[in-house]
């Protein structure tokens, strides 16, 4: 894992832990807590999937650009 990935993972884990603790302290019913936690984790998962898809596209562009430059050097 790169340094950026480790930092991002740490931030997400810290945020998840903080939200979970906050929900535990403020929740009045167990079912309500569970629903809130599920909604939050689903939102985080959706957002991270979108970011990873965007990163994948950027990586593909960089690879294509690098291949083109390498081909130009050999020609």
What can you tell me about this protein's structure?
The chain has 75 residues and is an all-alpha fold. It has one domain. Helix content is 92%, strand content 0%. It contains two helices and no strands. It is elongated and about 70 Å long. 0% of the residues are buried. This is YtxH domain-containing protein. It comes from Pedobacter montanisoli.
Low-confidence stretches: none
**Strand portion, in percent?**
under 5%
Strand runs, count: 0
What number of domains?
1
How far is it from the N-terminal to the C-terminal residue, by CA?
Answer: 35 Å
Please tally the helical runs, counting DSSP H or I stretches of 4 or more residues: 2
Order of helices and strands: HH
Characterize the overall form: elongated
Alpha-beta content class = mainly alpha
| Overall pLDDT | 79
Proportion of residues in helical segments: over 70%
Gyration radius (Cα, Å) is 20 Å
Reported for the largest beta sheet, the result is: none
Fold blueprint:
Blueprint: H1 3-26, H2 30-74
Helix pairs in contact: 1-2
Protein name: YtxH domain-containing protein
Organism: Pedobacter montanisoli
């Amino acid at each position: 894992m790169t340094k950026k990935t480790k930092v991002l993972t740490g931030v997400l884990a810290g945020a998840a832990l903080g939200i979970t603790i906050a929900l535990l302290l403020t929740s009045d019913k167990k079912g309500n807590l569970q629903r809130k936690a599920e909604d939050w984790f689903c939102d985080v998962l959706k957002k991270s999937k979108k970011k990873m898809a965007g990163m994948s596209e950027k990586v593909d562009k960089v690879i294509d650009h690098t291949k083109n430059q390498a081909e130009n050097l050999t020609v």
